[in-house]
Amino acid sequence: MSKVRIAQLSCGPEYSGVQKEIDEAAAAVDAEIFFPDLKLADIRHSFDEFGLEVRSPDLKLAIARAKALVEGRVEADAVFIATCFRCAEAAIVRNELRRYIHEHSRLPVVSYSFTERTTAGTLLTRMEALTTIARRRALLAREVQQGLTMGVDSGSSTTKAVVMRDNEIIGTGWLPTTAVLQSADDAVAQALSAAGVNRDDLQAIGTTGYGRFLVGEHLKADLIQEELTVNSKGAVFLADTQRGPSTVIDIGGMDNKAISVQDGIPGTFTMGGICAGASGRFLEMTSKRLGVDITELGPLAMKGLSRNVPMNSYCIVFGTQSLVNALAAGSSPEDVAAAACHSVAEQVFEQQLQEVDIKDPVIMVGGTSLIQGLVRAMGDLLQTEIVVPHHSQYIGAVGSALLASGFIKGE
Amino acid sequence: MTAYRPRYAGSVTRYVFVESPDMTPSDLAIRAYEISQGVMIKETCFGLQVTGKEDDVDRIVGSLRALDPAHIFVKDRGFPPGDPRRCRANLGGARPGYFGHEFEMGLIRNISRGLEAIPGRSPDELPHPPTPSKEPRLDAARLKKIIESQES
Amino acid sequence: MAKVFLYPTTSLILSDLVARFGHKPLSAALQIRERIQTAGLESPPLQITPEEPKKGLRWAAVEVPSGVRGRMSLYGPMIDEAEAAIIINNADYSFGCMGCARTNELIKYLVRKRGIPVLDLEYPQNEEEGVEFVAAIKRFLDTLVGGPQ
């Protein structure tokens, strides 16, 4: 298998001491980073033509390299855009280049703002997604699940398993992640039992999520794939929007994903979030503080008005403080629940949705998509009707089961 | 974390670039090989790199510069020659510093002209430092007059 | 022989002329060489580790991007050491070490703040400007202590 060639457009990683981390993350998924070759005259010409008058020479170089990729003067399989965190000039370039490449080419692109603390581990899933898109376009084009397959999503908060037969979900399993392998085994047992089939009957298995490698090896999975491509696939499959553009939002327990999808394949995506204040974790804390089960938080929030309670969960500690203050000041649990949902939606909107192109339908998936108050808050912010497909909390497992059917022998 | 052990510790590398009507980079390289005495010489697009002990490198660089003083230019380099971390073959494209060389080599004939002209002129005849251009500002009173003349 | 800070620090022209006229050019290459030739933890390509942006805190606060601080860990010591400086003000296409405009603004400011002799120039666009450029540098360097009088 030849290496996937990822073109790097960047300013600052060599001087932040993180170029090695970028190279390592790429090498871990059998890809290589390269720098599109240009001449000085190309740089000047392309920079002038692009029309974004930045001053930093390395950003000018990044712009010229992006143009060379889009115009086909340099060939690549994927693009990685990286600039320093907290640099406004670079953030503008990063956004515009990401958009430019997405609109004018089929190259998958991911952008990232690093600090000196960025590690290869942080970048790994992003790099893996880039290589999956480059390498497995044919597999990702699969729209129908065939045979009897299982998908397991070993997430940071919960583990999910789904058994599918002939394009239908016939069994599910779900439980909080404790010991990774034990949780996976238990979820699998639940799903098999619900489906009424034996482990030996399964024709293929796929795994995804944080624990995908460990669980994949344990289950002898046919497909081990990161959650960005798998969730995109699962989302458009369940929402029945496999063709055309869509946007997938997955607010997870530890981090969030926002993915611009075209025909079921991610074009651009972001992952992460600055603080758990922008994740499902904050909603879990809110429900605990309100003394309700997480499943009750959504309906509660639907009865409240978020604007009645000032809350900003940019930081989970300050967010929790606002929560406590609001309750102490006599705010109703309904309003507090609504405010918490609004705050998380706002963080995701501000931190991540600016980095992808929002195109309808917007599909929310993952466990948090069951919290109606959060879905409503996101819909209000995006001014659109959000789609929450059935089985949305099983998205990764469904995507895995669907894609795994591509590995059934004789396929 | 991998331990790093430097190669060529204690050596210096200098670029020797040539932009001359009388000498090509390969002419320069041939002359360098003749006097290298074991010091490492590597050809590049614009000239060559000389790597070795500082005194040896300076001796060679000095001899080479004497061949065509106004058209041979010297600069330090941080990396030893052919270092995989900076090599175009490994990076897929030129390292960023290359473009800086490309830019300066594009106007270096003007510097050569300066180097040739200066010894022939007495210090008093030498032109004054060019000052960085400042945008001339239009006097407010003058702008007012222009506006008034347009309105009338 | 005076230590002369160069801007851009990667300039072949400035490095050559300063050495040619008898002074010591402080160029980026010297800082890179020091790192490339020092054993430690591997951090290719420049052997700048995540520790360098932390060292850069001496010149720029923590809210300044890591790339600026990492670069300042190269240039800060050179600026402190410099006895004179030559600045080319229209060096818009110097990449890599000089690739960040914010760092470059800070470098120029810190050089000027030191109160050392500074010569401001622009790249010569024709042969006559070339004569002016070289003459200006020679005249400037000749006035520095230790230079040929």
Structural features, described:
The complex is a heterotrimer of chains A (411), B (152) and C (149). Chain A has 411 residues and is α/β, with parallel strands linked by helices. Chain A is 45% helix and 20% strand. Chain A has 3 domains: 4-135, Rossmann fold, CATH 3.40.50; 146-228 and 395-407, 2-Layer Sandwich (Nucleotidyltransferase, domain 5), CATH 3.30.420.40; 241-388, Nucleotidyltransferase, domain 5 (2-Layer Sandwich), CATH 3.30.420. Chain A has 16 helices and 13 strands. In chain A, the strands form 2 sheets. An 8-stranded mixed beta sheet of chain A has the order 2-1-3-4-12-11-10-13, sandwiched between helices. In chain A, strands 7-6-5-8-9 form a 5-stranded mixed beta sheet. The two termini of chain A are 20 Å apart. Chain B has 152 residues and is α+β, with helices and mostly antiparallel strands. Chain B is 40% helix and 16% strand. Chain B contains 6 helices and 5 strands, in the order E-E-H-E-E-H-E-H-H-H-H. In chain B, strand 3 and strand 4 form a beta hairpin. Chain B is elongated, with a radius of gyration of 23 Å. The model of chain B has no long low-confidence stretch (mean pLDDT 88). Chain C has one domain (3-143). In chain C, 46% of the residues lie in helices and 13% in strands. Chain C has a 4-stranded parallel beta sheet, sandwiched between helices. The radius of gyration of chain C is 16 Å and the shape is globular. The mean pLDDT of chain C is 93. Chains in contact: A-B, A-C, B-C. At the B-C interface, strand 1, strand 2, strand 5, helix 4 and helix 5 of B face helix 1, helix 2, strand 3, strand 5 and helix 6 of C.
Key features?
heterotrimer, A: 411 residues, Rossmann fold, Nucleotidyltransferase, domain 5, 3 domains, eight-stranded mixed sheet, five-stranded mixed sheet, 16 helices, B: 152 residues, four-stranded antiparallel sheet, 5 strands
Quick rundown:
By secondary structure, chain B is α+β, with helices and mostly antiparallel strands.
Tell me the β content of chain C: 5-15%
Gross morphology of chain C is: globular
The sequence of SSEs of chain C as H and E is EHEHEHHEHEH
- Reading the helices and strands of chain B in chain order gives EEHEEHEHHHH
Largest sheet of chain C: 4 strands, parallel
Calculate the terminal CA-CA distance of chain C, rounded to whole Å.
11 Å
Q: Walk across the major sheet of chain B and give the strand order.
A: 3-4-2-5
Q: Would you identify the regions of chain B where 5 or more consecutive residues have pLDDT less than 50?
A: none
Largest sheet of chain B: 4 strands, antiparallel
